[in-house]
Amino acid sequence: MKKKLIAGNWKMNGATATNAALLQQLLAGVGQPACDIAVCVPAPYLAEVGALVKGSAIAVGAQDVSAHDAGAYTGEVSASMLRDLAVRYAIVGHSERRQYHGETDGVVASKAQKALAAGITPIVCVGETLQEREAGLTEEVVKRQLAAVIHTNGHCISEIVVAYEPVWAIGTGKTASPEQAQQVHAVLRAQLRAATEHSDRVQILYGGSMNAANAAQLLGQADIDGGLVGGASLKAPDFLAIIAAAA
Ligand code: PEP
Predict the structure, then answer these.
(1) Beta bridge partners of 207
(2) Helical H runs in 34-160?
């Protein structure tokens, strides 16, 4: 049976000492988890976090990856560099990167392609803004965002993770109701099913103010295969409670 995946997105938070303290608490509390677990950390900490969690149930993820292989792309980090550090996942197309860094569906699709080619699992984020939801465009938007990745990555598509993250729910404390989330997840599952006979392998995560109190209900939905967790992943007891809810 497919395991759920609980992935923390630390965003631009952390410092050597606090990272170590957080991971120590997570490693002490995680036991033998029934789900896959990852922490997606800022690029400068990938190596040290990798060393701290080595051999444990916690995998390391990056928060982005370059759409290029190598060369004159100042500030970027390539998929092969991530691979070099034994990074397992890379978030691509997070709404904060789409919004603040102008990442288009095409760029996101290329980033997913580079990750896959390097043996890294891209966590492909899709999600509508509040304005788009209110205009009745939710399905159209998420299908367009996922279609770009499917179109570019063809037969590898069953190797990705998808994260449905309604933009209006990220960092706002407003969570999609389990029914609202399930409705969109079912649309994404159908789209994946049409693209690959292995669609059931794909973990479709929900992200957007998931916390210790709402995780069990969200994770209980038929097509919700885990969570991409921002704020709550920075507090060990909260992240551990979400992991426990994924059992
Ligand atoms: C995120 O950044 O991916 C996220 C879901 O954040 P939060 O859980 O804080 O809403």
Answers:
(1) 228
(2) 46-53, 79-84, 95-100, 105-117, 130-134, 138-153
Residue from 76, 94, 96, 139 carrying the catalytic annotation = 94
Please give the Cα distance from 243 to 50 (Å, whole number). 20
Tell me the three state secondary structure of residue 124: strand
Least Cα distance to 244 among 22, 59, 30, 25 occurs for: 30
- The count of domains in the chain is 1
Query: What is the Cα–Cα distance from 118 to 127, expressed in whole angstroms?
Result: 26
Cα-Cα-Cα-Cα dihedral of 196, 197, 201, 202, to 10°? 20
Query: Domain range for residue 195?
Result: 5-29+36-245
Q: pTM (2 decimals)?
A: 0.97
CATH number (domain holding residue 112): 3.20.20.70
Tens-digit pLDDT profile for residues 94-138: 999 999 999 999 999 999 999 999 999 999 999 999 999 999 999
Cβ–Cβ under 8 Å, residues 164 and 127: yes
Catalytic annotation present for 197: no
Q: How many CB atoms lie within 10 A of CB 194?
A: 9
Atom of ligand 1 nearest to the CA of 231: 9
